[in-house]
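We modelled the chain as a single entity of 487 amino acids. Its sequence is:
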Amino acid sequence: MDATSPNGTPSQALTPAKGTKEDAIRQLADAGASGDGSIFSQLTGNPFFTAGFGLAAVGAAVRYGSQGLRRAAELAKRRMLVDLEVTRHDPSYPWVLNWMTAQFQSQLKPAGARKDLGTMEYLLQRFTPGLHHLQIDTARFKTAGGSEQTMFSLVPGQGRHILRYKNAFIAVNRERIGKSFDEKGRPFETITMTTLYHQRKIFEDIFQEAHLAANQQAEGKTIVYTSRNIGWDASAEPKRRRPFDSVILEEGLADKIRDDVQEFIDTREWYLDRGIPYRRGYLLYGPPGTGKTSFVQALAGALDFNIAMLSLSKRGLTDDLLNKLLEEVPPRTIVLLEDADAAFTNRRQTDSDGYSGSTVTFSGLLNALDGVASAEERIMFMTTNHIEKLDDALIRPGRIDMTVQLGNATEWQIGQLWDRFYAPYDPEGEGKKQFVERAKESGLVDKVSTAQLQGVFLYNKDDPEGAIAMVDQLSSVMHAQDKQASV
């Protein structure tokens, strides 16, 4: 029977009929589809959520979720990747740039060479990105003939690069940091190399290979450093080493100096054990053209050393800067101070700009040579045309350990120079005898410099007879110079 209300009207059944359970579930599903009773509907219907608290909570959740993902990515990167940074101030910076250029060039094989590649090597080469950001590096140098030549090279430019080395992919980022510049006017830059952590040992191989390539480039050559701003600047192109026997000094003198320098190099521990400053100074003096500077260049080549040239009359040179330069001489480098007598003679002569020379004082020079703050492990050569103008305090033992006079050409030197130029054309030595006799008769022995004799031989490179014929002419020139000097 149907239930009725108190007023007699039929009422809905209070107990569910058969099938009511399934109907209830269907009604709930319909309500969820329509939004009634769903979580989203409850949230949007909540006044606190719609007032902004809920939105703030969702935003915070998104924010912290993104931070968590970023930190998780950074953690994975630290676990899986390794970075190596090289700054411009590090000596290996140019080595790495040149190595990168050579590495990319080695991967660019001609089409005909692809047949020799395996499938995997071909695919790796095929999909290895190329070098798309380039920067030009310009160097100027003088040839033996005195003309200036310009050499261009391409190095990886600013930006990101991908290279492959020993089947390991390396991400390279060359980046300019800020707007700061070093003392040479170069912007501050860094190179960051990134690879997988388990391949981190390839960095050692890269730097060893880059260092070896740099040494091979300078092998058989002498790097000449000159002072620039507050540091040493290497020459753009290393000079080919000058043969030691190309500079003809008085008999046995060149070997004597070389042996003394070599002994100094070999007795480093002896100096240190006895508390003696490990430095040695040499003074070469004599007329112009007797081979003072040339001998230092030949000596550096024979000892596998470089040369750092410094003029004491250089504009802007101060006592502090001089001391700093001598403290920072590159390793295995001979310091060459040329024309020491002219350092303090032209201070009152000014040019059109009002410049009156360097501000190096005599006491500053002495302190830089052997003062308390002077550098250790140094070989220095000083040259002068007028030793009489040098103060005794400058050339005393401890500052100058060996003083050597290089005079004009002796009879022995004249004969040695002749052999160096004309030995293939004069195997019997008859031309040599004629030239030496003519030189003695004309009064050239001990009067003419080796540079003047070399000029005559260069003018007659393949003509010994022409060199003999020019003896009288050379004698006339020498007598005219002597007469003018006496006046």
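As a brief sanity check on the tokenised model: The CA atoms of residues 307 and 408 lie 25 Å apart. The chain has three domains: 81-219, 239-405, 411-486.
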